[in-house]
Amino acid sequence: MQIWAHGSTVLVVGSQAPRAPLNKSIIDANISQYWRVSVVDLTASTQSDLAELVNSSVAKSGEVIAAEFQSNGRGRLDRTFEAPPKSALLFSLYVAPKRARSDWSFISFLAALAMREVISKDIKDKVSLKWPNDILIGDRKVAGLLAQQIGDGVIVGIGLNVAMSADELPVPTATSLALAGSNNLDRNLLLSAFLNRFADIFEAWDSGGDFLEKYRQVSSTIGRQVRVEVLGRDSIEAEAVAITAQGALILSDGTEVNVGDVVHLR
């Protein structure tokens, strides 16, 4: 760990070891006081842990739980996943918006925008967002997000593949920052950079800002022919043409999709 001082500004730089442990001191030194970060070695799910704190009125807006390992991590549609210890950045955050509750479903899109900005700085391949909440490098998934409205706010859970090798990937269509050639593999600095960027985006959105165009510009789904698969329903094939301020996907046949899996056809 290195500490650099410039005037009154102090930046704490983490270890460059790809699987260095999460370090609360490094994270706290690089984020604003809005965030309160807890680091745990092992948990079933940061999402469930944070939900329990919210329901108990313990967690306030800005609460973050990050874990070295999750034994029961879950994604959208209650899918489970497991990453080797210290190979991924796994965390959940809680925010309490001022905007109308009907707009809260867009918060996960804001988080995806923030994470995309953070990880794309030194990656040569295109980093894009696949509806609803996957982050792709090329055509491979590097991160997934999960959001749930709870109490007076929203919990967003994020899993980012950082140092995974090819044989550690959960599925053949996944990738990691290491495999994509990124030099930005310090999870402490990745989390810090994300929280700082997300705070800026969230504050602007919560004050009435519109991020639809920014999302459209980095979407790999809008403008593509897609197949939408929803459990218990017939799949739909059409062109994805837009998303709404609430995060719904609009298809060329007029269908508004709020939940489902999207397959890019071409």
From TrEMBL:
A GO cellular component annotated for this chain's UniProt record is: cytoplasm
**Pfam families in the cross-refs:** BPL_C, BPL_LplA_LipB
Has UniProt tagged this entry with the keyword Glycoprotein? Answer: no
State the top-level EC class: ligase
What are the residue boundaries of the BPL/LPL catalytic domain, all occurrences included?
26-206
Molecular function in Gene Ontology: biotin--[biotin carboxyl-carrier protein] ligase activity
Q: Which UniProt keywords apply?
A: Biotin, Ligase
CDD domains from the xrefs? Answer: BPL (cd16442)
* Stored SUPFAM superfamilies: Class II aaRS and biotin synthetases (SSF55681)
Tell me which EC number(s) this protein carries: 6.3.4.15
PANTHER family this protein is in?
A: BIOTIN PROTEIN LIGASE, BIOTIN--PROTEIN LIGASE
Tell me what this protein is called.
biotin--[biotin carboxyl-carrier protein] ligase
